Predict the structure.
Amino acid sequence: MRYEHIGKELFIKNREKLKGQLKPNSVVVICSNDIMPTNADGTMVFRQNSNMLYFSGIDQEESVLVIAPDFPDPKMREVLFLRETSELIAIWEGHKYTKEEATETSGVPTVMWNDKFEGTFNTILAETENIYLYNNEHIRNASEVETRTDRFNKWCREKYGNYNFERLAPIAYDLRTVKENREIELLQKACDITNQGFRRILNYVKPGVWEYEVEAEYLHEFVRNRSKGFAYTPIIGGGGNACVLHYIENKNQLKDGDLLLMDVGAEYANYNADMTRTIPVNGRFTQRQKDVYNAVLRVKNGATAMLTPGNSIPDYHKEVGNLMTKELLDLGLLDKTDVNNEDPNWPAYKKYFMHGTSHHLGLDVHDVASIYTDFKPGMVFTVEPGIYIPDEGIGIRLEDDVVITNDGHLNLMGDIPIEAEEIEDLMNS
């Protein structure tokens, strides 16, 4: 893999935590993702299933992890199934895991080729009552594509319909919500690479540059630091494009006097950074731009202070809304009548700040977790308020990635410039 060796200790620990949540006499099956097609014989870049990564570290297609903690034979309590390589595969596709490499990566002592799966699975099921299968239960999932996991689940339920089936997702999501120290280190690495990309951009942006050129500069810096690239499709929006929340065309030329909103992040070892910064294309904010910018920054700082153990997203978002309402009143974008007559289900501030402030972050950019779970040490959140004024061509969002700690929080992006004056100084140095 392009990234440095993570260490099998993380994945061993993750599997042990999982085992402690299972019913007696159970088996867990986790499948890799498919290599997805494009057109003709083309394929997309492979992206591993996050649960496979979390519980094994195996970053390869056509892999299956089976965990059966109570099976009588210790050698069969964890089994990893892999695609068997050949000289032909090595020539056309490159190196694949050997059994020894897979054990060193995952800590799973028993590794078999995929042709042994069905017979081995039958053997394990002879001593099993419950089968834990994964379904994508993310609240934003709207995909119509049938995945390898979906196909396996269908096959398994048809073939072994007399077993008791259990949901893996609630357990996996709960475990993945609180990060281990090694995961925080990987997230920090992704944030550090993102920092390098942003500093490169500050020396590059000027009137006349195109949005896609800015995207290319980020990609260059990310890849040269052992990232596979962007953690998600980047948003590089100048002027009015910054007011389009999911603007990803990145096709326009940057103009003197405009702001440039950049929502980008590097991935590292499949862990994701998620940063937003807004800068003046010509290196200097106008007074109006700076006033709005600093209002967003104050809301971000106030929101960050609330990312402490015991809080929860619904309560947190309500309080952030109060902070934003005050700033919009001070900017003259709202008046007291707007606030007094607001719809409680869509407060007045939503006219200029219509999205949420924070989401979980980890192996997935919008990481898996219940929004109703109280904040705990080890959880990682974005914090990303914004103000969007289409009539003025002003769109400003600021975003950092923050870890909840025992006594507060740690900003993984604390070294990335964010103060308006520092950005101006760096752009003009």
User: Anything to note?
Assistant: The first strand starts at residue 26 and ends at 31. The CA atoms of residues 209 and 254 lie 6 Å apart. The two ends are 38 Å apart (CA to CA). The chain has a mean pLDDT of 96.
